[in-house]
Amino acid sequence: MIKARHTAWAERIFHPYVLWLFKRHFHAIHLLGQVPETNPDLPLLLLPNHSTWWDGFFIYLLNKKFFRRKIYLMMLEEQLSRYKFFARLGAFSINPQSAGGIKSSLRYSVDILKENAAPRPMLCIFPQGELLPWDRRPLIYKNGLETIMSGYAGKANLLPLAIKTSFLNEQLPEAFFLFGENIITNSNTFAGMPRLREIEETLLDELSRKIVRGEKGAILISRRHTG
Questions:
Q1: Domain containing residue 134
Q2: pTM, two decimal places
Q3: 188 Cβ partners below 8 Å, 6+ apart?
Q4: Residue 173 domain flag
Q5: Looking at residue 188, which CATH number applies to its domain?
Q6: Can you tell me the distance from the alpha carbon of 151 to that of 191, in angstroms, rounded to the nearest whole number?
Q7: Residue 180 lies in a domain
Q8: What is the dihedral of CA 198, 204, 210, 216, to 10 degrees?
């Protein structure tokens, strides 16, 4: 597997570049609702849906603006092998075609959660494990998160996130984020993947209703303004 190799120079290069990308390819990026408070003394597991190529970039943006933690993001090994620069920003790989590769990536994820530097790290996992249409129901979740939680003895923040991009009244698409409630849990109190799937489906439906109602929330980035 490919491990993350955070470097300051990569961050200095990537941050202005990704802001430029967002302004070039999106009319605006919105946060609907609030960002839940998370315990900085516990690692954060961010659990978004995965329906666009941009999702990893969105996670980077949200971490820079709100969480400011050392970020790790699980990425398909085929993709990370092509774009190895992302490993210097916190991406690490998983190979779903290799049982040994899956075990290595899940063990590495447990090691990430055990990092003690304050604030504790943020680990982003896409529970669907692949790019799928936004409105696909039911959501199909892989079981990797259960393995990670069973291997990690401590408590963690579990934070669901709904992401949707949509063409509305502009030539370029808009992106919308909606967080669920933060869940502090451990291996003994973890509700399981079926419950997390239900939470995410409800969150996605709520996000869709808010967009239909015309809610704009907080504008994080637009072609005219960067918050």
A1: 8-222
A2: 0.94
A3: none
A4: yes
A5: 3.40.1130
A6: 15
A7: yes
A8: 130
* Distance separating alpha carbons of residues 2 and 87, to the nearest angstrom: 8
Considering the domain boundaries, does residue 3 fall inside one? no
Per-position pLDDT tens, the chain of length 227: 999 999 999 999 999 999 999 999 999 999 999 999 999 999 999 999 999 999 999 999 999 999 999 999 999 999 999 999 999 999 999 999 999 999 999 999 999 999 999 899 999 999 998 878 888 889 999 989 999 999 998 999 999 999 999 999 888 999 999 999 999 999 999 999 999 999 999 999 999 999 999 999 999 999 865 44
Q: How many domains does the chain have?
A: 1
The first and second tokens of residue 148, run together, are: 């990670």
In a domain, 1, yes or no: no
Residue 226 pairs in a beta bridge with: 221
User: CB under 8 Å to 100, separation ≥6 — which residues?
Assistant: none
Q: DSSP label at 4?
A: P
In sequence order, the 6+-apart residues with CB closer than 8 A to the CB of 52 are: 131, 163, 165
> Could you tell me which residues come within 8 angstroms of residue 192 by beta carbon, excluding any fewer than 6 positions away?
146
**Do you know the residue count of the chain?**
227
